[in-house]
Amino acid sequence: xxxxxxxxxxxxxxxxxxxxxxxxxxxxxxxxxxxxxxxxxxxxxxxxxxxxxxxxxxxxxxxxxxxxxxxxxxxxxxxxxxxxxxxxxxxxxxxxxxxxxxxxxxxxxxxxxxxxxxxxxxxxxxxxxxxxxxxxxxxxxxxxxxxxxxxxxxxxxxxxxxxxxxxxxxxxxxxxxxxxxxxxxxxxxxxxxxxxxxxxxxxxxxxxxxxxxxxxxxxxxxxxxxxxxxxxxxxxxxxxxxxxxxxxxxxxxxxxxxxxxxxxxxxxxxxxxxxxxxxxxxx
Length: 283
Ligand code: PDD
Fold this sequence. Notes:
The protein has about 280 residues and is α+β, with helices and mostly antiparallel strands. The chain has two domains: about 5-120, D-amino Acid Aminotransferase, Chain A, domain 1 (2-Layer Sandwich); about 125-280, Alpha-Beta Barrel (D-amino Acid Aminotransferase, Chain A, domain 2), CATH 3.20.10. It is built from seven helices and 14 strands. It has helices at about 25, 45-60, 70-80, 125-130, 150-165, 205-215, 265-280, and strands at about 5, 10, 30-40, 85-95, 110-120, 130-135, 170-175, 175-180, 185-190, 190-195, 220-225, 235-240, 245-255, 255. The strands form two sheets. Strands 6, 7, 8, 9, 10, 11, 12, 13 and 14 form a nine-stranded mixed beta sheet that branches. It has a five-stranded antiparallel beta sheet with strand order 2-1-5-4-3. Strand 1 (about 5) and strand 2 form a beta hairpin.
C-alpha cells in the first residue's frame, strides 16, 4: 500500500482529501519540487530547498514548515521500502483552499502540502544512444524561473513530442533556445559548453547548476549564453539535464542530426564525472 504525506500526516493515497476549492485545483496556484534518492541519500537537497523557498517566496505562499521537507521526504522513502532503490519524491505546495476569487484569501489559509515517493529504473540505454527532440516556439509565460505547477504549455508541448516519437520538446523564444519542457539544454560548440543563462525564461535546474560546476572542474570552457536556433548547424554536441535523466545526450534536434548523431566526447566526460560524483557520495 502506498503511503503519502499530506498536510503533516502519513496516510494512504486513498485517504487524501483535497478541497475542490483548493487554489492548486482552481488556479494552478502552487509550486513543486522533484528530488532524487540514490539508494541512501537525496542528491543536492540543499539546492532543491533553496529553489523551493524561492518559488514559494515569489508566489507569496507562506508555508512555515518548509524545513520539514528533508525529514518527511526521507520518511516517505523508508515507509514505502524504497531505501535501497533509485527513487524520487514529488512535493507540491499550493496556496490552500478558499472560495474562488482572483485575490489571495484574506486572512491567509493554510497551504496544502502533498508529497509521494516512487521507485524507478534509470534510462541507461537511452544514455548510450541519445534521444531525439523537437523544437517549438516557447509558448510559456515569462516567469519560467518559478517552479510552478502551471505546466500546461509544457505538457501540451511534451505531448506533441511524444506523439511524434520524440523524447523532449525544446523551446525557442525570439530565435534563442531556452530549455526543454522538463529539462535544461546544453550545447557544445568548438569545445565550449553553452547553456541559457539563469533568467526568467528558464528554470534554474539543480542538475544544470551541478553540471556547470563539474564542467568547470574539468577545465571545460563555459558560456552561460543562449544559443540561437540558426546556429544549430554549428553545434557538435547537445544534451539535456534534469533530476531524473541527469545528463541525457541529444543526437537529433528539430529534425537535424547533432554532430555525428551519437553522444559526443564532452557530453561523455560530463556524464561520467556526474556518475563518479554520485558513486563517491554513495561511499
Ligand atoms: N522538471 N526546466 C524545466 C522546465 C523543468 O521542468 C525541469 C525539471 C528542469 C530541470 O530541473 P532539475 O535539474 O532541477 O530537475 C528544467 C522536473 C524533473 C519535472 O517537472 O518532473
